[in-house]
Amino acid sequence: MTRVGADLVRVTVVAARGRTDLVLPTSVPVAELLRGSGLLDRVAAGERPRLLAGGTRELLPGRGLTDQEVDDGAVLTLTCETDPPPHAHDDLVTVVADVVEHDLATWSVATGRRTAVGAGAALLLLGAAALLAGRGPQAWGAAGAVALLGVAAALVLSRRGSALPATLVAWLAVAYAVVALVGSPSPFPWPVQGGAAAVLVGASFLPDRRLRLVLLPAVLTGVAVAGSGLLAGWLGLPVVAVLTGVAVLVAGAGDVLVWLATVPARLHPEPVGVHALDRDRVVDQVTRTHQVLAVLGAASGLLLVVAAPAAASLGAWGATAAMVACLLVLLRARRHRTATGVLTGLASGLTGSVALAAAVLWLHPDWRLGVAAGLVATGGGAVLVGVRGVGPSLRLGRLAELAETLALVALPPLLVAATGLLGAVQRWVP
Questions:
Q1: Cα gap 21→11, rounded to integer Å
Q2: In the chain, where are the structural domains located?
Q3: What is the signed CA dihedral for 173, 176, 177, 182, rounded to 10 degrees?
Q4: Cβ–Cβ < 8 Å for 350, 298
Q5: Helix/strand/coil (H, E, C) string of the chain?
Q6: Which CATH class is domain 8-80?
Q7: For residue 1, what pLDDT band results from cuts at 50, 70 and 90?
Q8: Helix axes 163-183, 109-134, angle to 10 degrees
């Protein structure tokens, strides 16, 4: 079928009372087309007309046919919906009850369960902090016992299908295990003890397919923290310097994380001559890639949170290096398409920034005024962006690319200055 004109399109409108062939302009809104073509004559009073393309996709009244991908020769369906009559009451009590029942959000049992789980998790975290501050054999033993009970409870909850409580209890078990080993006497530095505890408890959940992905970040973070402690002992460097360096390098190596995530997927082009791709296989591979990328991103963010006090203890250079690393993680979140990827990047950068700010405020009281000014300015800017609803912009994209490049360039010298690497090299080289 050939087009009748550059701005016209031939369509067939099917309604309950027959069908009509029309030649309609492509740029006029659908609402005006319905009024001007006489199609509303088939709509009874009290009915709302709907024009469907393909039988299911409703055309928006305020947009034209071309904007909604209606081609020449398309078949459109005209349907009508009757709005339900409003409730009529002559009693004020009945009206109030109807509003409360239907127009206001009510409290549900599921909401109560989630609230109880959240409150319990907060109290358990406070308990872990209290045991960590206790510093005694009784505190270490109690933390270890709670960790073992948490592992058993998380596995039971997972088998019952309670995903959220199982995840929270599993992470709390990791936290209590870290408290138990970090506080106990050992010849190894605290990162080795804490990292080993996270690896042991996190690995205990790997056989459970429901908890495997959500606990993998704990295992990877534990490996990185424990490795930092061992590397510091081998190199003869301060533990806080090595831990800060590892966390900043991992946060800065975002492209390497993407490459690592694509390795398990094994995406390869089909051989020549194969016309149809196995879509199920591609879906499985892409899903696996996104899962691995989310796990690596969460582990990188958790490592930033753990290393924040260490970076703050190194002074201005360490705090600046950690802040630039958090900024890099936030900037890279814009590259993701999926909600999980964006949320992981934003959560990692924000939690790392909050942990760093808290550590700086605690360790450096004379910096509090400057940190407060920076937090107020950053928070105000974020609120302004959210209120204005800034969408995708080429200028903002270029500014973000420039900021990411400058951060990558500034990160190595900041890291060298923070960790005292030059002094260590001068001591090694005669």
A1: 6
A2: 8-80, 109-236, 241-265+299-429
A3: 160
A4: no
A5: CCCCCCCEEEEEEEECCEEEEEEEECCCCHHHHHHHCCHHHHCCCCEEEEEEECCCEECCCCCCCHHHCCCCCEEEEEEEEECCCCCCCCCHHHHHHHHHHHCCCCCCHHHHHHHHHHHHHHHHHHHHHHHHHHCCHHHHHHHHHHHHHHHHHHHHHHHCCCHHHHHHHHHHHHHHHHHHHHHCCCCCCHHHHHHHHHHHHHHCCCCCCCCHHHHHHHHHHHHHHHHHHHHHHHHCCCHHHHHHHHHHHHHHCHHHHHHHHHCCCCCCCCCCCCCCCCHHHHHHHHHHHHHHHHHHHHHHHHHHHHHHHHHHHCCHHHHHHHHHHHHHHHHHHHHCCCHHHHHHHHHHHHHHHHHHHHHHHHHCHHHHHHHHHHHHHHHHHHHHHHHHCCCCCHHHHHHHHHHHHHHHHHHHHHHHHHHCHHHHHHHHCC
A6: alpha beta
A7: very low
A8: 0
Of the candidates 311, 166, 293, which has an alpha carbon nearest to the alpha carbon of residue 249?
311
Residues 6+ apart with CB under 8 A from 220: 295, 296, 299
Question: 122: exposed, middle or buried (C-beta count within 10 Å: 0-12, 13-18, 19+)?
Answer: exposed
User: Which token pair is 10?
Assistant: 């031939």
Q: What is the pLDDT of residues 114-169, one digit of tens each?
A: 888 888 888 988 888 888 777 777 887 888 888 889 889 888 888 887 778 888 88
Computed on alpha carbons and rounded to an integer, the radius of gyration of the chain in Å comes to: 30
Quick count: other Cβ atoms within 10 Å of Cβ 274?
9
Residue with tokens 């408890």: 201
User: Contact, 150 vs 172, CB < 8 A?
Assistant: yes
Which of 416, 306, 407 minimizes the C-alpha distance to 358? Answer: 306
Q: How far apart are CA 94 and CA 426, in angstroms?
A: 84
pLDDT (tens digit per residue) in 8-50: 778 887 776 677 777 877 777 777 777 666 666 655 555 677 7
304 is written with which tokens? 């930033």
pTM comes to 0.69
The values of phi and psi at residue 427, to 5°, are: -70, -35
